[in-house]
Amino acid sequence: MPEILSQQEIDSLLAGFSAGKSPGEIISTQGEKEVVPYEFRRPSRVSKNQIRTIQTLHQNFAESLGYYLTSRLQTPVSIQVENVDQLFYSEYILSVEKPSVIFTLSAGENKGEFIFELGIELSFVLIEKLLGGGVEIPEIGKKKVVRALTQIEQNLIRGIVERSISELEKAWGMIDSFKFKIAKYESDPDIVQIAPSSEIVLVISFNVSLADKNYRMTICYPMFVIEDTLTKMTLQRFMGVKKHTPEEYVKYIAEKIKTTKIPVSVELGQSEVTLADLLNLEVGDIILLNTGVDSEVKVYIAGKLKLYGKPGIFGGKKAVRIANNEEG
Q1: Disulfide-capable partner of 197 in 31, 90, 177, 242 (CB 3.0 to 4.6 Å)?
Q2: Taking the CA atoms of the chain, what radius of gyration do you get in angstroms?
Q3: To which H or E segment does residue 25 belong?
Q4: Cα–Cα distance, 101 to 146 (Å, whole number)
Q5: Prior bond to 2 cis, omega within 30?
Q6: pLDDT digits (tens, 9 = 90+) for 99-120
Q7: Backbone torsions φ then ψ of 152, nearest 5 degrees
Q8: Per-residue b/e over 267-306, b at no fewer than 16 CB within 10 Å?
C-alpha cells in the first residue's frame, strides 16, 4: 500500500524543489530531528497542548469571575491568566507571601486537595468594597495593614471563594466533572501540606485588575489531582474550549435578567385607625380605605413605586390591570 504524505511533508517537498534541491536531499533533511534535552530534576508532566487547554479553560473561569465581582463590588474588575507553570510543591509554597489567604479545596471523590490563594492585599480590598468602603488597603498611620484575617473577614472572603469555585467547576466541566468544596482556611503557607515537597504541581497565576491597581491570585493543583483529567484533554476537546466574547456575555446576562424573579406588591389604599379600634377589630369588620372603587392603585416593584393599575378578577383570582407608569 503506498504511503500517504502529510500536508507538512508535501509543503517541505515543494519548498525543496523551489530551492533547487533533489528529492534525496529533501528526504534526508526531513529525517533529521532536533534533540531536546530532558531535565530529570524537573520532568515535564503536562504537554504543550494540555497547557494551552488549561490556560484557555482558566481564562474562561477568570472572565466569569471578573463579571461576577464587577456586579458584586460595583467596580470594574478584570482578571487575566498570567502564567501556567510546573513547579515542585516546595517551590510554590516558598513563593506564597506571609500572611496570605489560602483556601484548601477538596476535588471530591478521593481525588485529593488543591489550593486557591488570594493575596493579602487583594483580600483586604475585596473586604473593603464588600463593606461599602473604597479600594484602598486599610492603613494604620502610614503603614498598610499586614495581618491575618479575622473570623468575620474570613467569612466575607469565603463567600467570594464559594462563588469562585462554582465558576471553576463550570470551566472544568468542558473536560471533566468535579465537585469542589472548601476544606479549610490557612494564613501561613508553611503549614499547608496538600502534597509532598517533591511533587510536581501545576500553578495558574492570575492578574486581578481592580480600580487601576493589580493584585495576584493563584491556583495550585498537585498532579495527582488532575492526572486522570489530563488524559481526557484530546485535540477535539481542546478545540471545543470556547472563549466567550464580551457580546456573548452581555447576551447571557440579559437572558439571566429576564428570568430573574423580583417582588411585586400592590397598595390598594391607606387608612388611619386609632389603637383602640385596631385592638377591637374582629372577623367581618370593614376598614375604609382612602381610595374609591374606580381609583387606580399603586404597583411597587422591588419596593419602589413604578406603575399604577386597576384591581379586578382574572381567571378566578385577584389581579391588577396596569394602567400607566409612575411618570404618567
Answers
A1: 90
A2: 31
A3: helix 23-31
A4: 12
A5: no
A6: 999 999 998 777 889 999 998 9
A7: -65, -45
A8: eeeeeeeeeeeeeeeeeeeeeeeebeeeebbbbeeeeeee
Contacts of 120 (CB under 8 A, 6+ apart): 97, 99, 100, 101, 146
* CA 49/CA 102 separation, integer angstroms: 29
Q: Where are the alpha helices (DSSP H) in 106-245?
A: 120-130, 151-172, 223-230, 235-240
Calpha distance 219→206 (Å, rounded): 8
User: 142-195: per-residue pLDDT in tens?
Assistant: 556 678 899 999 999 999 999 999 999 998 888 888 889 999 999 999 999 999
| Cα separation, 10 vs 261, whole angstroms | 60
- In three state form, how does the secondary structure of 245-299 look? CHHHHHHHHHHHHHCCCCCEEEECCCCCCCHHHHHCCCCCCCCCCCCCCCCCEEE
Burial call 150-171: b when 16+ CB within 10 Å, e when fewer: eeebbeebeebbeebbebbeeb
Distance between CA atoms of residues 26 and 23, nearest Å: 5
135 is written with which cell numbers? 479600594
Q: Under a CB-based contact definition with an 8 Å cutoff, are residues 88 and 199 in contact?
A: yes
Burial of 50 (0-12, 13-18, 19+ CB in 10 A): buried
The full DSSP string for 76-145 is: -EEEEEEEEEEEEHHHHHHHS-SS-EEEEEE-STT--EEEEEE-HHHHHHHHHHHTT--SSPPEETTEE-
pLDDT of residue 27: 53
Tens-place pLDDT, residues 33-76: 555 555 555 556 778 888 888 898 999 999 999 999 988 888 88
